[in-house]
Amino acid sequence: MTPGLRPADFKISERSTALTALQEELEGIPCTTEPQQLSKLSIDWHTFSPVLSEKLAGKRADIVYFPTSEAEVIRIIQACVRHRIPLTPRGAGTGNYGQAVPLEGGVVLDITRMQSILWTKGGIMRVQPGVKLMAMEKEARKTGWEVRMAPSTFRTATVGGFVSGGFGGIGSITYGVLRERGNILGLQVVTMEAEPQILELRGEAVHQVSHAWGVNGIITEMEMPLGMAYPWAECIVVFDDFMQSARFCQRLGESDGIVKRMISLHAWPIPSYFVALKPYLPEGSHAALLLIAENSLEPLADLVKEWGGQITYTKPAAVCVGGTTSSTGKGITLMEYGYNHTTLHARTADPSLTYIDCLFPADPDLKAMEYLYRTLAEEMMIHIEYLRLNGKVTALGGQLVRYTSEARLREIMQIHRDQGVHVHDCHDFTLDSLQKKDASNRNQQLELKKRTDPLGLLNPGKLKAWMEWQAQQTGSPSM
Taking every annotated instance into account, which residue ranges of this chain make up the domain FAD-binding PCMH-type (predicted)? Predict the structure, then answer.
């Protein structure tokens, strides 16, 4: 390939010939070119954003492969490198930034059939990337452990997709986010080269490829620490005043003696979108959805009383789906009303809604949150997930916005920034837009990509730093 020539620059006839040769070489590995399947497996939940829906419309893979082993992944990589065909990794497609959308066509590598749990010992589990979070939870609980954190899509989400594209989740109020030291122990990564290398990254080196959307290597194995399993009770606590509910949740997060797995706060009218929970959500009330260890229910009740809230719903672990945890079976669980599922439920009722993804400053007085709640009440509904970040209880925002235009959406995002709130730009499909405050990690990801993907075939178009560097090398303008 001519230096600086992108995979998308190939003529249609050249791409078609290359794809035909690719299929011949990879005979025996499951794949599909069926148009409807290609469309389905080329999108994720970026459709939450009207901006991304427009920008990514029509982006589709030419072929999807379903490897079941690392050996098959290596074969696919070698063929793609030989024919200069771009490759985009994909888990279950539950990400919402366009991580798995193939901007330049080519191959989508669907890892959902790599489902082996390789071993479990001493509170550590080694798995292939296609293992679902719920399957990990079930297996871990056999020996008294559970996954440390999971997205609200835990029933379908793969651990590989979560580590590659996620930030934190249910459990992060105790263990922090994926980025925290010790939450990922090891990752085995295959490089995008003619002769692929198999790298074992451990310690802080794992973050060169975690939350990197597969731009600099394909994860084929992961080693994850587990947490001690608890019987989790589910509770709904309602308040008449939003800021009182927010301060209660902050105090609950800081109450280290109360064992919890989720603190999810929803300003009215968000609770009105939770149809199955309607009997427990009084009109006009603001709701905190909680997962609390059963042995902490008594002190929780005392804290609720102290802050003037009302417990309207409690499901003891003994009657939760799955017996000891609501995360391991079917039926209603509050875990599926927080994080991205909040936006999903809201958009089911009102498809015109979109969201803003942000991180509030660690402020126990919640001044920025109160300002935004008072100022933007007509346009925005506050949704908060409480987690630990660098040891401090912090509010992660997934605000629901009544969308009118991209210009106004970005004005609202700037109002957040003016209050010291960090906005993850979930309406941009590049990795850099979510990592602006972490230049060191961004540079590490770029340096690794230079070594592991010299032709730039992995998930092309998602890393601005790579495109800028490539332009400098060739003297051509960046994309």
Answer: 56-229
Say which amino acid occupies 83.
H
7-111+442-474: CATH number = 3.30.43.10
pLDDT band at 322 (very low <50, low <70, confident <90, very high): very low
Write down the mean pLDDT value for the chain: 92
CATH no. of 117-228? 3.30.465.10
Q: Which amino acid is at 206?
A: V
| DSSP secondary structure of 368-402 | HHHHHHHHSTTTEE-EEEEEEETTEEEEEEEEEEE
Cis peptide before 269 (omega within 30 of 0): yes
Q: Could you report the per-residue pLDDT of 209-239, keeping only the tens digit for each? A: 999 999 999 999 999 999 999 999 999 999 9
- Tell me the three state secondary structure of residue 262: strand
DSSP character string of 20-45? HHHHHHTTTS-EE--HHHHHHTT--G
- Cα separation, 178 vs 209, in Å, equals 12
Is there a contact between 433 and 465 (Cβ–Cβ < 8 Å)? Answer: no
Q: How far apart are CA 246 and CA 264, in angstroms?
A: 10
CATH number of 232-424: 3.40.462.40
* Percent of the chain with pLDDT strictly greater than 70: 92
The H-assigned helical ranges of 242-366 are: 242-254, 297-306, 340-349
Q: Among residues 378, 280, 274, 294, which one has the least CA distance to residue 335?
A: 274
pLDDT digits (tens, 9 = 90+) for 178-215: 999 999 999 999 999 999 999 999 999 999 999 999 99
Which two three-digit tokens encode residue 358? Answer: 């942000």
d(CA 425, CA 357): 7
